[in-house]
Fold this sequence. Notes:
381 residues, homodimer
Amino acid sequence: MFELLKTDAQTKARLGRLTTKHGVVDTPVFMSVGTQGSVKAIDPRELIEMGTQIILGNTYHLNIRPGMEIIKAAGGLHNFINWQKPILTDSGGFQVFSLAKIRKVKTHGVEFRSHLDGSKLFLGPKESMEIQRILGSDVAMVFDECPAHDAPARDQRNAVERTIRWAKECREQPRAEGQLVFGICQGGSNPELREQCAKALVAMEFDGYAIGGVSVGEPEPEMMKAVELAEPHLPAHKARYAMGLGTPAQMVELVARGVDMFDCVLPTRVARNGTAFTRKGQYGLKGGAYKADFRPIEEGCECFACKHFTRAYLRHLLNVNEIVGLRMVSLHNTHMYVKLMEDVRATLAAGTFADFYREFIANFVPSKKILSEREVAKLER
Amino acid sequence: MFELLKTDAQTKARLGRLTTKHGVVDTPVFMSVGTQGSVKAIDPRELIEMGTQIILGNTYHLNIRPGMEIIKAAGGLHNFINWQKPILTDSGGFQVFSLAKIRKVKTHGVEFRSHLDGSKLFLGPKESMEIQRILGSDVAMVFDECPAHDAPARDQRNAVERTIRWAKECREQPRAEGQLVFGICQGGSNPELREQCAKALVAMEFDGYAIGGVSVGEPEPEMMKAVELAEPHLPAHKARYAMGLGTPAQMVELVARGVDMFDCVLPTRVARNGTAFTRKGQYGLKGGAYKADFRPIEEGCECFACKHFTRAYLRHLLNVNEIVGLRMVSLHNTHMYVKLMEDVRATLAAGTFADFYREFIANFVPSKKILSEREVAKLER
């Protein structure tokens, strides 16, 4: 299902192809986040026009609303949301540990209260895989335990042990026809734990491997380190997915460290506050500097927003709370993420990725504000 | 500029064609409301796909934000919002009287405080026409005084006198190249005042005539009466526009009473609360009855939302506050209004309008809730 087409000569970057039931995904790839069955403010036609190959759905959220009875009646998530390209579903593990109120970790899962109405729910490997089977996603994720980045060593160790045990349980569950299942490597920034977790998962022969426990509030160097600790223990012929990441610069940095797949709510989240991403960084479109700026959000950009509207107009729409404003910035930012990975693939194919990488990182200036937005963003994914 | 193509044999309905600088508008027509330079939640491509011929902009709102300096720098409203079809702009008279805080009516206009920041502003015939000249709309409206429907007789009389005097002032102002100007007939439900106002305006030879002082909280029969009182005094060879109306049934009723043009915020406003219009009335999509209803919003509808999504999915999106939900219902409702007027024109051309009219009114059941929404809607137009 995953073909490694090429490995970069100067970095660990990889060009690949993941074949799923609903089509082929070229990697490295950015996957747009459709937590509740919709990429925020963007419709499927717009997603396809910008070259989106795969989107995410979320087990925890979709199980609460609309619930599996309705998804089952609709014939699965693809039909329910009318998206006939690949879907990856997260297992709900992350949300149970970050979002749910009052949780009790048990042997076969977690008892918790819904973040919405406080009702008592239970989610474990068996339940999560069953939900993902009903959703019919192309890639299902195992149910893991994701501790906070500053959790004590003992909690990190327990989380790794539990994650391995639950991964095994997930591995044994029935799947939807043609569904791939990825393991999730935990272990924080502890080299032994990352190695232990990666090796145990690899022994179970999953269809791909995610690096979890990143984008949980840790500083950027620690995030890079976590990936660097896990990566050498993952097999070259399987896809690697860094969960919940990141800024454009972080994605390019992680491609260079051997990561193939990314997902992040940042492009749509910051768009709703009026922040636009460009190849040089990001800027707040609401600012007075743009009130008579009749250039597109990013010069040379081919997205629907940049082809039709000016900064001055979008700034006005954002400032008077018109929905078309946040729609267009969401669209531009998501397009920017998707195209960035297209460029990464093109330079990998051409053998020029190392130059592209150096140049991109030198030009892209991430703001402190964006890095702190990751804190809030993690609650939304 | 207005050609009367056909008058219905059994009703007062008219088939016509209004030629403007940015193109031809077939009448009867529904004009979508883009108060602040954007039809709420719908982008220009979607508007064009559904057959939109003309949209509205608002002098009062656009003058406050983004302000005329920016619109002028953009080269007018069409360029600023990237809409190259006709635009009609309201004069701001309605907003000054319904929205602004603390106003002082003077000889040449109204001194008032901005509803946003309380800053002191002045709007009168001269200012309104100058703003509309800068906006470069295809149809400008005169600056009128619109009293409440239950205003005392003396206020109604004063409003008519002032409206006539201000209309004359507007008539004398310079216009944008090719800009049409419509007069606005006031007079509430008083036959003498309606006649006096209509005749005075007609003597000034405007390019078209609006019936104002409707959709200001009056009961429906009073609204119909106001139109019936004004209509006989308006010349057949000029377009007639009923301002701020209405429900689908009200529009069809008013077509039968000789009205050619309509605008209303209802289709997008109620959409944001999850209410969908159909040929039979309206329903709240958020209701539990639709949770596993996999039909489109309206069977047989050809809009983007109905071609792609089910009630069950849109209900879910509305209930979890996903923007694509309210986008799609806004789109469907606006499409329904636009297509309803297309059907009206087709039946007028075929000579079958009277049958269509009877059948539509018999089938369409307006809800009390929708009629009361008009109360809130008037604040938004």
